Structures are given as structure tokens and as C-alpha cells.
Amino acid sequence: MRILFMGTPAFALPSLEALVDAGHEVCGVVTREDRPKGRRLIVSPTPVKARAVELGLPVLTPRSLADPSFMSAARRIAPDLVAVVAYGAFLPRPLWEMPPRGTINLHPSLLPRWRGASPVQYAILSGDAETGVTVAHLCDRVDAGDIIARERLPILPGDTGGSLSSKLAEIGGRLLAEAVDVIDRGAAERSAQDEEAATYAPRLRKTDGLIDWRMPAREIVLRIRAFNPWPGAYTYVPRDGGKALVKILRAEASAGAGGKPGGIVECRRDGIRVGAGEGCVVVRVVQVEGKRPVDAGAFLCGRPGLEGGRLG
Fold first, then answer.
1. In this structure, is residue 141 part of a structural domain?
2. What pTM was estimated for this model as a whole?
3. Does one domain contain both 27 and 168?
4. Number of domains within the chain
5. Residue-wise over 247-266: b if at least 16 C-beta within 10 A, else e?
6. Where is the domain boundary, 185, 201, 217?
7. Position 307 in a domain
8. pLDDT of residue 312
9. Tens digit of pLDDT for each residue in 104-115?
């Protein structure tokens, strides 16, 4: 089949590569426009665009999917199927209804659980024991189309938003290619989603990462894991009469009395104990804004007097 692939971030790369490796004709790649990135705001292509150029695939970067010129270009490409992986925008009906074999989407959750923009993070935040990837048809509601294929993956105690996304991307690439093969053979079965079981994972904002030390320690640690690397779980540390923003990259929950929420109970080279609403958080790895990540011992060097202070 001729496949029009739509994707933007690094998460979509294993899927694009799996379709190419499987011998499918990727007749076009649609991705978002080049945007400024980093501290120097250098205009850069999306990961999908960069890889598509390396593979010699034609690339479209429409400002809007509803733009008539883009729709005309998509019709000229004449794909049999559209495959979407983390494109980052809602597809208008004329686009997903255009290909004769339909439009499918790879979503990093076990639909109907965690529809929406942040399924990986919400699976960790909620303490789910497992997650997975789902290939489903597109419809006029977000992530609510009929399911073609799913694969489960356990969530390990050390998984972060970043590490779990990487695992799901690799599994998803293989599952997407397998689903396309099944569709090509005309053997794909569709199963409707259970609407009563649907949950939603809205788009995260930078401010969601601010730690509320009044929460139970276990919930704080889940947020630290889920928000690594983005938006990052962060707090403020006293410094020279002011405060410094510090991301917490790795921590553990500890039972027992922890003192006042945000209070620095104990400073040791192997961890900084911080009070929470219930129990305490043992901080292992941090990153001061603009600096590289360091363990607790390195962070404490040159910061005498933190013990007894307060974060937040």
C-alpha cells in the first residue's frame, strides 16, 4: 500500500522506520513546521522531518491541516492509507476520510484508558501496573476509534516518562507495521471501545511540574517519575536570601514521620530527606536550573545549612 505518514517527535521515528523496513511505500511524510529550539532558539526541523530527509522521503510541513493547498497536495499523493503517530494536532474529517483504506493512529496507552495528549505520564501518575500501545482507526472524537491491535507492557518501579515512552515507541513501531500488513491483506478486525471505561490524559503544562510538598510522599515520587524529562518535577531551594529552581530527577518515598511538608529533615551524601504530607521523600538526583544533573552528595557540596530549611 501507499502510506502517508504523519508524525512529529522522536517517539514517531521507530514507526516510520518500521514501515520503511517492512517494504511499504511511504509516499509522503507530514510533520510540523520547523521551530526555534534550545536556549539559542535555533530554527530546527522536527525529528521526523530530519529522519524522512535522510531516508529520501518527500516531506510536507503545512501550517494548517485545513489549508486547501495541503489537502490538494495530499490528494495528489493519493495514499491508500494514512498512518498517524504523535503528529500533535487534530486531523480534520476530510483528511482522515480521504484514503480508501482509512486512517489509523498509534496511541501509547491501552485504549480506552488514557485518551488524550499525555497518556504515558498519566499511566505513571496513577500508579498503573501496566500500559501499552494501541493501533486504532481515527474518528471524529479524540482517540475513540475502533481498535485494530493492542500490546501490553508492565510499568517497572524505575520507569520514568522518558524511559517508558522509549519502550512504547519501539513496541509501537513493530505493532503499527504488523497492523498495516493485516489491513493490506484485508484481514483486520475492528472492535469498538468501551466508552464507560474511558479515561483522559490532558496536555501537560510547565507549571504542572511544581511539587506540592503537602501531597503524600508516594504521589510526589510518582510525579517525579512521570514528569521526567518533561515538564520536569521541580521545587525551590533557599539560596543567598533568595531561591533557586531545582528539578528532582530521582527520588524514593519513605514511610514514617517526615516533619513539615517541604522541610529538609536530613542531608546525607546518599539522599536528602524532605517532609511530605504523608511520609517523606528521599531525593537522590537533582538538577539546578542551567546545570547538569548531580547526585545528592554533589549537590550538598558548597551548600551548608540546608538541613532544617524548607523547599517550595
1. yes
2. 0.95
3. yes
4. 2
5. bbbbbebbeeebbebbbbbe
6. 201
7. no
8. 87
9. 999 999 999 999
End residue of a domain, out of 176, 201, 226 = 201
What SS3 state is found at 293? coil
Note the pLDDT of residue 39. Answer: 74
Q: Are residues 38 and 182 in the same domain?
A: yes
Residue of 136, 144, 29 whose CA lies nearest to 87: 29
**pLDDT value, residue 69:** 96
Residue 236's domain is classified under what CATH number?
Answer: 3.10.25.10
What H or E segment, with its residue span, contains residue 287? strand 280-288
DSSP state of 91: P
What pLDDT is stored for residue 306 in this prediction? 87
* Structural domain for 275, as ranges: 206-300
Share of the chain above pLDDT 70, in %: 99
Pair 191, 287 in one domain: no
Distance CA 44, CA 118 (A): 24
Place 40 in a pLDDT band, splitting at 50, 70 and 90: confident
Task: Write out the three cell numbers for 81.
Answer: 492509507
**Within-domain flag for 168:** yes
C-alpha cell belonging to residue 186: 484485508
Distances (CA, A) of 63 to 69, 196, 304: 10, 36, 52
3-state secondary structure of 307: coil
The β-bridge partners of 7 are 85
**How many Å apart are CA 159 and CA 154, to the nearest integer?**
10
